[in-house]
Amino acid sequence: MRMVCINCPKGCVLEAVRGADGKVSVTGHTCPRGEKYAIDEMTDPRRMVTGLVRATGLKRPLSVKTRQAVPKGKIQEVLSALARTVVCPPVAIGDTVIADVAGTGVDVVATCNL
Is 12 left (phi over 0), alpha (psi -120 to 50) or beta? Predict the structure, then answer.
């Protein structure tokens, strides 16, 4: 699999191949972070999720994000949970809005004060 590393501004073009033994070998990286990025992308791809949730009594929604990256396959479940969520102000930056979203072990937190 060919990919561009996003861990630093260099943007190394990486080539990752899974061997018969299941191990991933990486070429094209100029630092250990690039190798780790490629291995993670091949074995357990994860993404940060950002979004908005409704707030009672307000027209303005609350912006939120996952505290850590969630498995790529769980993104739709996370977005569905955000769509169902309504918060009651006041909410402060960093407050947990949804704990253990979609069974990922990752919390969704507020990114602004409301």
Answer: beta
